[in-house]
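Tutorial, part two.
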Amino acid sequence: MNSLHRVLTTVGLSIGLTGLPAAGLAQSQLSSAAHLHRAGVEQLNRQRYSEAITYLNQAIAADPDYAPAYFQRGLAHAAQQDYSAAIADYTQALNRQPELGEAYFHRGVAYYHLNDDSAALADLNRALEFNHQHAVAYFYRGMIHHRMGNSSSAIADFTEAIALDANYEAAYLNRGSVFYTLGQPATAADDFDAVIQRNPASAIAYHNRGFAHAALGDPASALMDFDQAIALQPNYAAAYLGRGLMRSVLGDPSGGFADLTQAIALAPTQATAYKVRGDLRLQQGDATGAIADYDRALALRPDYREVYKSRAVARVAAGDIEAADADYSEFLAAYPTHAEALNNRGDLRASVGDLEGAMTDYSQAIQANPQYAEAHYSRATLRLETGDWQGAMADFERAAQLYLQQGKAEGYRNALRQRQSLEAGR
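Running the prediction step on this input gives:
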């Protein structure tokens, strides 16, 4: 669920550490540096970051070894999203005052924003050695673990953050998102519930819970959650996307189309909304409109492989077999063992007389998923066409067995009838 959001807390920038002066520093220098430092912190607390940097520059000029001034200037640079400059200042502070644990924490956060996960992890680990009660450090470490694909460690860190701060909404939200991606929507919904209980105005919690309810097979509850998310945040594009999906599922395609169009209007560079609206258009028989939406999704995100598969289906409906084959091939380049796509491309190739290519696709589909009854049936039909009666009988028989096991009555009857017809003709 790429659609679930990762929420970051805003790190407070009002930390004011006094530090100790270097031995032998003249009292006038100390007074000047400390005074300028205090003035910088005051501007920092008022979110006047440029002014804060000016005072802190002067404090450092008055005392180049005054660690707190470097630290606070790092905070000001971070507030301006100049994370490289922030890291340089935190490093200077730590060179002068190695026990400044908060500098490790903030440098770790800066590294996180620069996607340097290994450096961020090292600094956050060090920060937690200084203060093992640091809930926000656990939170950011959880974010890094999640980004690195270590879900169990991410959950453990978010859980620790919640244990230290029972009202830590971002920790609940992100832990819920991890549970969702692990295929545990019920547990995810519990975390989103916890946020809503603490903050009924959290639009993102309703949005996320909507997707959890959808995954639990409860589209009506999901729809109510998306409604509430939109009521709280009328320009919430992702919530319109979710509501559009649910309206479509619940038999309101026009409402779904309207919501998806609104999602696109609010976030015109988000490829997912075009893809989903294309799917809805295809379901309504508008292959041309679907192709246009898929084209737009791919223009925005060329590596969106799932769109190639959807566009292939639309192109078949539009009668463009050659282009459909190309789209299936593009999709299969990324997912070479996708049995359904292999089988569908096999059908296309069989329809234009490429029987060898079709046979290869059907066999690869079966190899990828031996339980895929449709591929057995398709290969049986092709074998029958090419005169391989024995192979056709075996595939029809296997298809019938699989259809029966899977409760697909029509497929079972068709495969059994074909098998019996071949047996009678021997």
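Residues 150 and 355 are 45 Å apart (CA to CA). In part three we will examine how such features are distributed along the chain.
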